[in-house]
């Protein structure tokens, strides 16, 4: 009898361990598959961008009584970007929540990229989003560097799509004989935009850190390198 009771107690203890493990795994799984932005609690929440609006993680909602169909229309991609002002002969036109308030809480944003011949979007990351690139016009060489340092890159033609996983360093260059255009989508209303060269060279990191990291031991060379970074992308 004593043996049976102990066996039963042991079985119950083992069962509790199993249940605890399964619950932990389910919670962890739920966290892992969660979207880049949290799910909205209503069908829409057009952002109130007025300076007097309270600041939250995102933006407060515009009064529904004042929302019209025009709030859901974005016309910012009708006009090509001015590629001559960036220093790299390419221009990003953003359609994120600040430009397109209807995106608030919906977990998505867009970018139109215009490229002159040889135009480049410098290596950059979006810390809060994955991204797809759809070629509307021209030929674009693009790719990303994985977290284990592998370059994945392809030359895309009109109609092609490429994806950049969340947080990976990626870039674009127009390799065609004429202008190029891409339409990009990201799974966050505020994906972040961090350009590698600007972060590294224009953020006032100690010169000694940069010189050692880049193998530059001449202050003049470092100054020239810093001066060569197009400030537009910062």
From TrEMBL:
Instruction: Give the UniProt keywords, A-Z.
Output: Apoplast, Manganese, Metal-binding, Secreted, Signal
SUPFAM superfamilies listed in its UniProt record:
RmlC-like cupins
Q: Does the keyword Nucleotide-binding apply?
A: no
Q: Which SMART domains match?
A: Cupin_1
* Location of the protein in the cell: Secreted, Extracellular space, Apoplast
Q: Which Pfam families has this protein been placed in?
A: Cupin_1
Q: Which domain of life is it from?
A: Eukaryota
* Record domain Cupin type-1: where: 75-223
Residues making up the signal peptide according to the UniProt record: 1-35
Keyword flag rRNA-binding: no
**What is the similarity comment for this entry?**
Belongs to the germin family.
Please report the name of this protein according to its UniProt entry.
Germin-like protein
Q: What species was this sequence derived from?
A: Sphagnum jensenii
């Amino acid at each position: 009898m004593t043996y049976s009771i102990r066996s039963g107690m042991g079985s119950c203890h083992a069962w509790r361990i199993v249940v605890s493990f399964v619950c932990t795994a389910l919670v962890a799984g739920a966290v892992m598959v969660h979207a880049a932005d949290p799910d909205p609690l209503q069908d829409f929440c057009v952002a109130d961008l007025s300076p007097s609006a309270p600041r939250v993680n995102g933006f407060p909602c515009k009064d529904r009584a004042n929302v019209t169909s025009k709030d859901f229309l974005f016309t910012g991609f009708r006009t090509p970007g001015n590629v001559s002002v960036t220093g790299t002969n390419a221009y990003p036109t953003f359609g994120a929540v600040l430009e397109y308030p209807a995106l608030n809480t919906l977990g998505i944003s867009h970018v139109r990229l215009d490229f002159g011949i040889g135009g480049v979007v410098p290596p950059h990351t979006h810390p809060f989003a994955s991204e797809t690139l759809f070629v509307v016009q021209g030929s674009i060489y693009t790719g990303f560097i994985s977290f284990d340092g592998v370059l994945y890159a392809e030359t895309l033609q009109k109609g092609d799509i490429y994806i950049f996983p969340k947080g990976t360093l990626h870039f674009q260059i127009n390799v065609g004989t004429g202008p190029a255009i891409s339409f990009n989508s990201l799974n966050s209303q505020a994906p972040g935009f961090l350009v590698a060269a600007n972060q590294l060279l224009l953020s006032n990191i100690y010169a000694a850190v940069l010189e050692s990291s880049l193998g530059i031991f001449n202050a003049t060379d470092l100054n020239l390198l810093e001066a060569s970074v197009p400030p537009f992308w910062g």
